[in-house]
Write a structure and sequence with these properties.
single chain; 388 residues; alpha+beta; FAD/NAD(P)-binding domain; D-Amino Acid Oxidase, Chain A, domain 2; nine-stranded mixed beta sheet; eight-stranded mixed beta sheet; globular; binds flavin-adenine dinucleotide; binds ligand LYRWXNCF; EC 1.5.3.7; FAD; FAD/NAD-bd_sf; flavin adenine dinucleotide binding
Length: 388
């Protein structure tokens, strides 16, 4: 390897966002290097695991609009690679009928004409057996929603990137970034130069941004990913048409609780709490707080009578949260050829293909094809810190 290899673009971080960005750049014939600190595939960031939810149901129109295009981009990748990445299951949204959050979900779906079925307390269990709908809760199903096969999706997009001539170097930690008209990136194994750099480093974003003099208001939390055993095997199975679900708020908490049908682990249903305890990404396994699991146990006992209310398997993952829970998709405030994709706040996987497209556009100096105003760095005015 030459000591200063030259690229059009270097993407730092081969999670879902970096991998889709690199793939989009390679599709536009840009000489692209994707750098990853761990040996791939790994389970130390935020994109690992077998499944993620994909949905159009959101509280804000702008996410629903982005998902309209994003479903098409997922389907394109499936066709291109000849791999199945999405399975439609529907998403059951439940929450206090009169609460702001539940009403926002319902209104966004209806305003955007997303195919939706509204259930009543009378017909709920005909459609959704083995779930107790709380008194006063509304329920509706976003028909377009389903499951993404996450590990498979990551492998597929990285493979397509390589087929297009892109280079992936894993087990290579980025140790320095020197801004300039040509950016210099140093790693544990070499030095590279590029016209632009995209930072998609997940929970490590601030560690990398420190080299560029910027700190974003990001909080990293560890999520206990819990799998719950069916009392009668198959009762919550994807083949029985059991949907993904999201409880906007409940007796146990004001935060969302969400789940996916049993499928990838036979007889086990994945159910998570949409919040965790603060962690350093390099010390994730030292964070042993289980208060999220206590909340889930009470919820499962109350509402999912067909599950044993004790997790059978607990895995770990991380969220990188912004204060408003919206993403950061922007150019660096001081260096227009350094692009940032960060703060995906526990809901970014489904957007991977469109985020890749947008970060690619930003890195090429093109006008982004979506309105990025909710995702700009300047919304944190007063909350960003200089790291110099
Ligand atoms: C439990 C859980 C459930 C979720 N459920 C859903 C869901 O149902 N639907 C949904 O849409 N989203 C969901 N999400 C969110 C989604 O998975 C994340 O938003 C997304 O994976 C974030 O991807 P990323 O590429 O930003 O981060 P990561 O996947 O963490 O990628 C960042 C990469 O950068 C690398 N890196 C960091 N620093 C360096 C360095 N110095 N040098 C080289 N490489 C570096 C890291 O090793 C890592 O591989 C969930 C997340 C979790 C944790
Ligand atoms: O993004 C998703 O769909 C999941 C479920 C709701 C909370 C966060 N992640």
């Amino acid at each position: 390897m030459s000591s200063k290899a030259e690229y059009d673009c270097i993407v730092i971080g081969a999670g879902v966002q970096g991998s889709f960005t690199a793939y989009q750049l390679a599709k536009k014939n840009r000489k692209t290097l994707l750098l990853e600190q761990f040996v791939l595939p790994h389970s130390r960031g935020s994109s690992h695991g077998q499944t993620r939810i994909i949905r159009k149901a959101y509280e804000q129109d702008f996410y629903t609009h982005m998902m309209e295009e994003c479903y098409e981009l997922w389907a394109q990748l499936e066709r291109e690679a000849g791999v199945k990445l999405y399975r439609q299951t529907g998403l059951l949204v439940m929450g206090p009928e009169n609460s702001q959050s539940y009403q926002l979900f319902k209104n966004t779906l209806q305003r955007n004409k997303v195919p939706t079925v509204v259930l009543t307390s009378d017909n709920f269990n005909q459609h959704i057996p083995h779930v107790n709908l709380a008194m006063g809760d509304g329920a509706l199903v976003d028909i377009t929603a389903g499951v993404l096969y996450a590990d498979r999706a990551l492998k597929t997009v990285q493979g397509q990137f390589q087929k297009l001539g892109g280079a992936i170097r894993d087990k290579e930690v980025v140790t320095d970034i020197k801004p300039g008209p040509v950016v210099t990136v140093s790693t544990s194994a070499g030095v590279y130069r590029a016209k632009s750099v995209v930072i998609t480093a997940g929970a490590w974003a601030n560690k990398l941004l420190a080299h560029t003099g910027l700190q974003l208001p990001l909080e990293v939390v560890k999520i206990n990913v819990c799998y719950w055993k069916e009392k009668v095997p198959g009762s919550y199975n994807v083949k029985q048409r059991f949907p993904c679900f999201l409880l906007t708020e409940g007796e146990e908490s004001k935060e969302h609780i969400y789940g996916l049908p049993s499928n990838e682990y036979p007889g086990l249903v994945k159910i998570c709490y949409h919040m965790g305890s603060e962690t350093d990404p390099d010390q994730r396994d030292k964070q042993t707080d289980r208060s999220d699991i206590d909340i889930l146990q009470r919820y499962v006992a109350r509402c999912l009578p067909g599950l044993i209310p004790e997790p059978a398997v607990v895995e770990s993952c991380m969220y990188t949260l912004t204060p408003d829970r919206h993403f950061v998709l922007d150019c660096h405030p001081n260096y227009s050829n350094i692009v940032i994709g960060a703060g995906f706040s526990g809901h970014g996987f489904k957007f991977g293909p469109i985020i890749g497209k947008l970060l690619c556009e930003l890195s090429l100096g093109e006008v982004p094809s979506c309105d990025l105003s909710p995702f700009r760095v300047k919304r944190f005015q007063g909350k960003t810190k200089s790291a110099l």
